[in-house]
Design brief:
CATH topology of one domain in chain A: Four Helix Bundle (Hemerythrin (Met), subunit A)
Order of helices and strands of chain A: HHHHHHH
CATH class of one domain in chain A: Mainly Alpha
CATH superfamily of one domain in chain A: NADH-ubiquinone/plastoquinone oxidoreductase chain 6, subunit NuoJ
CATH architecture of one domain in chain A: Up-down Bundle
Helix content of chain A: over 70%
Oligomer: heterodimer
Number of helices of chain B: 3
Distance between the termini of chain B: 55 Å
Number of strands of chain B: 0
Shape of chain B: elongated
Largest sheet of chain A: none
CATH class of chain B: Mainly Alpha
Number of strands of chain A: 0
Shape of chain A: globular
Largest interface: A-B, 87 and 71 residues
CATH topology of chain B: Helix Hairpins
Structural class of chain B: mainly alpha
Strand content of chain A: under 5%
Number of domains of chain B: 1
Chain lengths: 171, 100
């Protein structure tokens, strides 16, 4: 059952990832990325990371993707959007890197599946509680820094999207 | 059960797809989308390792990666809008503002 779920989610993720890169219309690419985010959330559920699955849906599918769609439609990109000249080089380098990574993965010793009782204990304790506890004790300082990053991003986005920051109309 | 190497190979495939996307696409928005693919590939890896090593730190790190991704998208799209306003193109081949 778990194997079946993995292969379903994995195959859809790979297919939609390739579609994101291959489709010529940016709107279709964004939609296919949306499908990919949903299936990654499903994969997180099979890995007992329910909190992250929910956050993935809310933040990625709900906020980031809408932002992309908004900008794609705002810029109205209907002109012919061909690939770069180096498609063959890109694909060749990608396949080379992939073969390399797979060769390394097949060589190293990886940790085995955790024991059943450990998984059951973790599930009983609750994934959200565990993440929250780690976030507010061990990782409290990085958490605060993350809020600062979001503030910087917000101010930066507002300043940069303002009219007259670049180009001839700048005062 | 699924061995950890399957998750790693899945993540590697998605990551390489993102790299290829950055290399071959002309549209700068598609470049940002490809970076999104790469970030998600690392997230899959983090969550898989968090499960197999029974350590919650991996999931916390994915949380921070999400924060950074959100910031990156907001700033990146603002830059694209500013660029489009001044240059009227999103083709990276024509955006040579900083070329010496």
């Amino acid at each position: 059952m778990a194997t079946l779920a993995f292969f379903y989610f994995g195959s859809v993720i790979v297919l939609t990832a390739v579609l994101v890169v291959a489709l010529r219309n940016p709107v279709y690419s964004v939609i296919s990325l949306l499908v990919m985010f949903f299936h990654i959330a499903g994969l997180f559920v099979t890995l007992h990371a329910e909190f992250l699955a929910a956050v993935q849906l809310i933040v990625y599918a709900g906020a980031i993707l809408v932002l992309y769609l908004f900008v794609v439609m705002l810029l109205n990109l209907q002109q012919d959007d061909s690939y770069q000249r180096q498609v063959k080089w890109g694909l060749g380098l990608g396949l080379l890197a992939l073969a390399e990574v797979i060769a390394i993965i097949s060589k190293v010793a990886l940790p085995e599946e955790p024991a059943e009782e450990k998984i059951a204990a973790a599930a009983a304790a609750g994934n959200t509680e565990a993440v929250g506890k780690a976030l507010y004790t061990t990782y409290l300082f990085p958490f605060e820094v993350a809020s600062l990053i979001l503030l910087v991003a917000m101010i930066g986005a507002i300043i940069m999207a303002k009219k007259g920051i670049m180009g001839p109309e700048a005062k | 059960m699924v061995p950890l190497s399957y998750y790693m190979i899945l993540s590697a495939i998605v990551f390489v797809t993102g790299v290829v996307g950055v290399l071959i696409r002309r549209n700068i928005i598609m470049l940002l989308l490809s970076i999104e693919l790469m970030l998600n590939a690392t997230n899959i890896n983090f969550v898989a390792f968090s499960y197999y090593l029974d350590n919650i730190a991996g999931q916390v790190f994915v949380f921070f990666a999400l924060t950074v991704a959100a910031a990156e998208v907001a700033v990146g799209l603002a830059i694209i809008i500013a660029l489009y306003r001044s240059k009227a193109t999103v083709n990276v081949a024509e955006l040579n503002l900083m070329k010496w």
